[in-house]
Design brief:
The chain is of the alpha+beta class. The protein contains 4 helices and 3 strands. It is globular and about 30 Å long.
């Protein structure tokens, strides 16, 4: 049994596949990790969710951003 999977499901109520690591986010969005962190600071990218010391992004948040990245703003969500 994958302890991380069990932990993330227990804490968030979401299956593990719905929470993505920054490397997975970068690959899915086609941008660098440093660009992700910059966009997060600027409020132009979905905020991460902290699980202990881990940062994860919800797949649904990323899909919303990918549908229209230039118009996306955190306060709209």
């Amino acid at each position: 049994m994958d302890v991380t999977n069990k932990y993330s499901e227990k804490v968030t109520g979401l299956p593990r596949k719905e929470l993505l690591h920054v490397d997975e986010v970068a690959a899915k969005c086609g941008i660098s990790k440093s660009s992700i962190w910059r966009l997060v600071r600027e409020g132009k990218f979905p905020q991460r969710h902290k699980i202990g010391r881990m940062a994860r992004w919800r797949l649904s948040d990323l899909e919303a951003w990918l549908s229209n990245p230039t118009e996306w703003a955190e306060e709209d969500k």
